[in-house]
Write a structure and sequence with these properties.
Layout (H helix, E strand, L loop, with lengths): L13 E4 L4 E4 L7 E2 L17 E2 L5 E8 L4 E8 L40 E5 L7 E5 L9
Length: 144
Amino acid sequence: MANETCPNCKRKSLRYRVYTEDWICGRESCKKEFDKNFKEKPAEEKPPEGCFFDEFKNVYKQDIQVLEDSIIVTKTYFLEKGRDTLKGKYPKFKSEEYCAYPKHACCNSTIGKTRCEYMKYIISENSFGTGIWKCLFDKYKKGE
């Protein structure tokens, strides 16, 4: 894919990044990032310098070490402030006030964490084996 014209600096230095599905200007003086529609990304949508976002917007950096007979890829994830897990595919079921683990960023299993013990898969009688996930934690019954 040939370089496109950068909307910011008007040079033919915009290249598509397949991994992040966005565009970046290759000029050192510009380095602006754009979405699929060539609109500039807001600052909160950009990872810190030298880092990347995963599919759930968790921030990580990646180090690659090439040896004679192997390649070692190390990903280091950074937790959000006040959290002790990464974000996952689904949002939390309950707000922090009513959650058993308010510092968790999600209820489901993620890297380094298993699914919350209060999450249960409920199958109704007429559902033919399909059901829904539900959080059964009740903060008022916690002491019982």
